[in-house]
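Quick one:
INPUT:
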């Protein structure tokens, strides 16, 4: 059924899509060959998914893996999804952690986009 949890899942997915687009933009600026772009994209995507709890439940991952994963946007996407799934009341104190995870994802997106722009500008001047 379509409820408020679904709305938050959709918003989180949209935020993560922005982050994914910025990672793609960065990879596109780093890698020259179109064949290599596919390979690098697969390695980055699968690596982020394995370490961040997409394929394996977060509860089964070790604390050191989770500490490393917290430096990836995928971890925060999974974190937000897990928190959204547990929501029953939608006051600010309950959704604050979800919104924080989404803001962290947007921060990653901004950082990847900024790095890609710097690389792009350097390549134009070389």
């Amino acid at each position: 059924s379509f409820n408020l949890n679904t709305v938050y899942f959709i918003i989180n997915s949209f935020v993560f899509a922005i982050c994914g687009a910025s990672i793609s933009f960065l990879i596109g600026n780093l890698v020259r060959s179109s064949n290599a772009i596919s390979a690098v994209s697969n390695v980055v995507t699968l690596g982020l998914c394995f370490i961040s709890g997409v394929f394996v439940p977060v509860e089964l991952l070790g604390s050191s893996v989770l500490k490393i994963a917290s430096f990836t946007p995928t971890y925060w996407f999974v974190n937000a999804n897990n928190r959204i799934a547990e929501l029953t009341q939608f006051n600010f104190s309950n959704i604050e952690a979800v919104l924080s995870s989404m803001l962290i994802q947007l921060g990653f997106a901004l950082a990847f986009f900024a790095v890609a722009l710097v690389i792009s500008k350097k390549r134009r001047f070389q």
